[in-house]
Amino acid sequence: MNSPLNIAPSNPMNIAPSDKVVKTGVRDVDAVAEGLADVLSESYAVLLKTHSYHWNVEGPLFHAVHVLTEEHYTDLFAAIDVIAERIRALGRVAPMKPSDVVNMSNEHSTLEHPSALWMLEDLAKDNERLAHKLHALVELADARKDHATADLATARIAVHEKAVWMLRALAAS
């Protein structure tokens, strides 16, 4: 049977991603990969909202918010790639369906036309929530002897905690 691209399944160019066994001493790879996928999904939602606010901010804080949100979404985009590659390094397939890649739950709903101050506080809350998820991932990874994931998550915690501070400091100005 041919695929939609008329490539025979036996063709070596028709290899699809699949889970692999990687023996590095990490215990319960599935749990760690699920934790990483959750952080990836949350990060993508924050990236999309941050980018949307970057496009739509208006008012006296326009330039400062525009510049800060660009820094944040650029960092998030790079981080998401690192997180997905960590999932692959653990031998698991990174999320592929849009519904798995982006968590667009009610936690991420926003006003139709928020003010710059509202945007700043909203993004601060999103970054706090992401930092909490990352703290949980550090604990999960440490318990399963996955030091690389714990280090990755620890570095991301510092980024998101700094983002919370910067967003709230700008909102207070």
Automatic annotation (TrEMBL):
<keyword id="KW-0238">DNA-binding</keyword>
<dbReference type="InterPro" id="IPR002177">
    <property type="entry name" value="DPS_DNA-bd"/>
</dbReference>
<feature type="domain" description="Ferritin/DPS">
    <location>
        <begin position="35"/>
        <end position="170"/>
    </location>
</feature>
<dbReference type="GO" id="GO:0008199">
    <property type="term" value="F:ferric iron binding"/>
</dbReference>
<protein>
    <submittedName>
        <fullName>Starvation-inducible DNA-binding protein</fullName>
    </submittedName>
</protein>
<dbReference type="GO" id="GO:0003677">
    <property type="term" value="F:DNA binding"/>
</dbReference>
<dbReference type="InterPro" id="IPR023188">
    <property type="entry name" value="DPS_DNA-bd_CS"/>
</dbReference>
<dbReference type="InterPro" id="IPR008331">
    <property type="entry name" value="Ferritin_DPS_dom"/>
</dbReference>
<dbReference type="InterPro" id="IPR012347">
    <property type="entry name" value="Ferritin-like"/>
</dbReference>
<dbReference type="InterPro" id="IPR009078">
    <property type="entry name" value="Ferritin-like_SF"/>
</dbReference>
<dbReference type="Pfam" id="PF00210">
    <property type="entry name" value="Ferritin"/>
</dbReference>
<comment type="similarity">
    <text>Belongs to the Dps family.</text>
</comment>
<dbReference type="GO" id="GO:0016722">
    <property type="term" value="F:oxidoreductase activity, acting on metal ions"/>
</dbReference>
